[in-house]
Write a structure and sequence with these properties.
The protein is of the alpha/beta class. The protein has one domain: Maf protein (Alpha-Beta Complex). The chain contains 6 helices and 6 strands, in the order βαβαβααβββαα. α1 links the parallel β1 and β2. Bound molecules: 2'-deoxyinosine 5'-triphosphate and magnesium ion.
């Protein structure tokens, strides 16, 4: 089967393909930008995005909204992660975290799939903000996020390694489980 992934982030596409294509699900990226509302939750952003997209996409599709939530910053950048990445970036986050001992943070991913109805799948990974940028793989905040149980950042992992433990990998796993149960392929 083939489903569309509406996103402008090629890093997300790479991860979704690495996870789902070996399981027999073909991903067709569609770079259509949709309004991302200013909301308190990733779920609300996804639900609004689907409502806006559903009559504009020729088939079943999914979108994904994600964010990095830093405990010492009361959850910032959270739902504003994309905007913060584009404005103050990794150096800005490291600066805000200077002299902050509590490095705890988590990533969260919310996938919304539309097949006539909306289905939501989520995943979270706990970790810490590093003291400097490390690694060249991945995208976004990967060079400053160290998942619990590891010494290296997401940017020091291969796509497969990251997928096995990441927020997006977990959401994709839930998504795949649902597809398998409901489509009986
Ligand atoms: O695994 C990740 N590793 C590092 N950084 C990440 C990850 N997952 C999301 N992020 C960053 C990217 C973006 O700055 C923001 C999410 O914003 P978000 O709107 O979901 O993504 P986006 O605008 O890059 O692509 P899209 O076209 O799918 O909306 O957090
Ligand atoms: Mg976005």
């Amino acid at each position: 089967m083939k489903i569309f992934f509406v996103t402008s982030n090629i890093g997300k596409v790479k991860e979704a393909k690495a996870f789902l294509e070996p399981l027999g699900i073909e991903i067709e990226p569609l770079k259509i930008s949709y309004p991302e509302i200013q909301a308190d939750s990733l779920e609300d952003v996804v639900k609004f995005g689907i409502e806006w997209l559903k009559d504009r996409i020729p088939g079943y599709f999914f979108i994904e909204d994600s964010g990095l939530f830093i405990e010492a910053l009361n959850g910032f950048p959270g739902v504003y992660s994309a905007y913060v990445y584009k404005t103050i970036g990794l150096d800005g986050i490291l600066k805000l975290m200077e002299n902050v001992e509590n490095r705890k943070a988590y990533f969260r991913s919310v996938i919304g799939y539309y097949n006539g109805n909306v289905h939501i799948f989520t995943g979270t990974v706990q970790g810490k903000i590093s003291y400097d940028k490390r690694g060249t793989h991945g995208f976004g905040y990967d060079p400053i996020f160290v998942p619990d149980g590891y010494e290296k950042t997401f940017a020091e992992m291969t796509t497969e390694e990251k997928n096995a433990i990441s927020h997006r990998g977990k959401a994709l796993k839930e998504f795949h489980r649902w597809l398998k149960e409901n489509l009986k392929y």
